[in-house]
Amino acid sequence: MRSLPNGTNGTEGLRAQNLSQILTMVHRNGPLSRSELTRRSGFNRSTVGALVSALTEKNLVRETEPPVGGRVGRPSPIVQANPDVAVIAVNPDIDALTVGVVGLGGHVHARVRRETRGIPSLDDAVGLTQEIVAGLEPTLAGLDRLLGAGIALPGLVNAGTGRVLVAPHLGWHDADLTGPFGGALGLPAVAANDASLGSLAESIFGAALGVDDAVYLNGSASGIGGGIVSGGAQLVGSRGYGGELGHTLVGPAGRACHCGRAGCLDAEVRLERLLEAAGLDGGGIEALERVLSGDPPEAVRVEADRQLELLAVALTDFVNIFDPELIVLGGFLGSLVAFRGEQLAKAVNAGSLAGRVTVRRAALGPELLLVGAAELAFQPLLASPS
Ligand SMILES: [Zn+2]
Question: Is this prediction's pTM over 0.85?
């Protein structure tokens, strides 16, 4: 292979970098005027114009004329990431499999949650994903491009290799995820831990936007996972398995945890026990949400209060260790925040040494993990739009 002359290579590399910067900006911030892009990027007006034209030609952004009137001078066109450039997002869990079609800008075109009979095996999950995606054909037909697939899994996943080391509640061990899912969908696939992706999604589009120090906890049917943003960067650990905040001890004399210890947050604070208290057999987070937002029966209130108390014990530890500005709770933990968030924040602030932290529910709701999985799948395009 003949290499390009240095000059060309350098210019091309720089241009690719600039395209990446502009596309990422409109993807993450939503529609921006050309003049706002000029201000934020620090490029001059004609450079921004050329970059936007190049991205428009590739159909990655769309330009619209701004509304007429009001301002003096020539109005600046509005640039928006093309939501019809999309990926498939997949979130397998012990009670259900959720599949979404997510476009640039975090736009969720479709979301399908299918309850499973029993805990799905990896083969079951791949087969069910294929079936759901086949049913989404009308949505897919309306897209401009389908780029790939992202998988958010409750377990220890090496995002670099796409392998799961262990997903304890699903019972999946040391398996390749991206090969089977990608093969079944005919798309390149990527995978990572669900809570890390939830944390990423909330940092880009949700409650932790612009926050440099945040602790994020996600509660799914499988259990509790975490993500830590410190000094603006995600803490991932030496092998990418960091942030397993669910295995924080909240009651040493408590229930046995699958990790071998007893009294972990993950063993004590559980969705199925809230559903059981409500007399429900399934329905997931959305069913719990309906119970908590109405007038919940005594048994549900008692169980929710017990779980909130133990959650406060763990969150107090996280505040002492990480000194976050914000704690974001997603999944059914978000439902508990909606139920008694003030009480939770009060307990955490009273218990921690350094004082005030804000406790907020994840903003992306049931779309959270899908948007996170999609973000991972969009990364190659955002890094190199050309
Ligand atoms: Zn444990």
Answer: yes
